[in-house]
Amino acid sequence: MRIFNNFNEIGDIRNAVVTTGSFDGVHIGHKVILQHLRNHADETGGETVLITFHPHPRKVLYPETAGKGLFLINSQREKIYLLEKAGLDNLIIVDFTVEFSKITSVEFVKNILLNKLHARKIIIGFNHHFGHNREGDYEALRKLGSENGFGVEEIPEQDIHNESVSSTKIRQSLLEGNIQKANAYLDHFYIVMGPAKPSNIMLAEIGFPSYPIQVEEDCKLVPPNGVYAVTVNGGSQARKGMCFIRKNQESPIDTLVEVHLTESDEQLENKVLSLYFHKRLREEKTMTSLEDLKKQLQIDKSQIDELIF
C-alpha cells in the first residue's frame, strides 16, 4: 500500500477507483466499501484509493462540542495497518484544517478527484456527504460524473450495515468493556498498537513481568479498567497475553496499558507491539498486599490458559 500525505506527492494511479471518509475502526461496513472498490478496480485493471482525514474533522470543526469528547477506535498507526491488511492500494491522508473544510463539493471533485487523481469511478456509502457544509451528496456527484466522464456508485444502506450506527455501537461496546460485541461489529479484533516500555518492576518481582504500552494518541479509545485476554504480536511470534488497563481520567495520554506474556519470558522492551483483544476477564480490584495480587493474577492467568485463541 502506498501512503501519501498530500495531493502533490501523488504520481500515476491507474484507473483510480476512489472513496473518501474517516474509516475509523476499519469495521465491517468499511470493508464492504473497500471490497466494492477492489471489485471495480480488478475489472478495469485499476487501483483502489481512499482519501481519509487527520485529525478527525469533528476535532477541527467542533473542538468544544461534538469533537471535544470524541474518542477514536484507531490511532493512525492502527488504521494504516488495518487498511493495508484489507488490501487497499493507495491511502491519501489529508491534513484536515478549517481552510480545507471550506473547499466546496464541486471544487473537491474537479480539483482533486479529477485533476489530481483522474478518478475513473467514485464509490460512496449510503447517505454520504462531502465538501463545505456537507453540501455534496450522491445526486450532486452523479450529475458531476455524467458531465465529466466518471462513474459513481452509492452502496445501499443494508449492504454496509448502517456504517454510522455501527461506529457508534463499536465505541459504546468498547466503553462498556464488551470486547466480544465490539469485535463482532469490527469483523476483527480490537487492537492497540504501540512501543513497549521497560517492564513493571513490582509485577516482575511476583512473577508477572509486564510491559507498559505507549498509547500514542490522546483521542485513542481505550476500554475501561480491568484485565483482558489478548494475543500479542511483535516479539518472535504471536503469544497469549494478559493485559491490564488503568485509565487516567485527567490525562488520557497517561492511561496505563500493560501486557504480560502468559506462556513466555521473552523480553519485549522497545518493540512495537500489537495487542489483539479477545475478552474482558474482570474489573479492576483493589489489593491489600502483593501476595493477594499474586494470587489474583494466578487466577486470571489460569482463565486465559483455558481460553481457545
Explain the layout of strands and helices:
Blueprint: E1 2-4, E2 17-20, H1 28-44, E3 48-54, H2 57-61, H3 76-85, E4 90-95, H4 98-101, H5 105-114, E5 121-124, H6 138-148, E6 151-154, H7 163-175, H8 179-186, E7 190-195, H9 201-205, E8 211-213, E9 226-233, E10 239-246, E11 256-261, E12 272-282, H10 290-306
Parallel strand pairs: 1-4, 2-3, 2-5, 3-4, 5-6
Antiparallel strand pairs: 7-12, 8-11, 9-10, 9-12, 10-11
Helix pairs in contact: 7-8
Features:
23% strand, 6-stranded antiparallel beta sheet, single chain, 309 residues, 2 domains, 6-stranded parallel beta sheet, Rossmann fold
Describe this structure in words.
- The protein has helices at 28-44, 57-61, 76-85, 98-101, 105-114, 138-148, 163-175, 179-186, 201-205, 290-306; strands at residues 2-4, 17-20, 48-54, 90-95, 121-124, 151-154, 190-195, 211-213, 226-233, 239-246, 256-261, 272-282.
- It has 309 residues and is an alpha/beta fold.
- The protein has 2 domains: 2-165, 3-Layer(aba) Sandwich (Rossmann fold), CATH 3.40.50; 189-306, Elongation Factor Tu (Ef-tu), domain 3 (Beta Barrel), CATH 2.40.30.
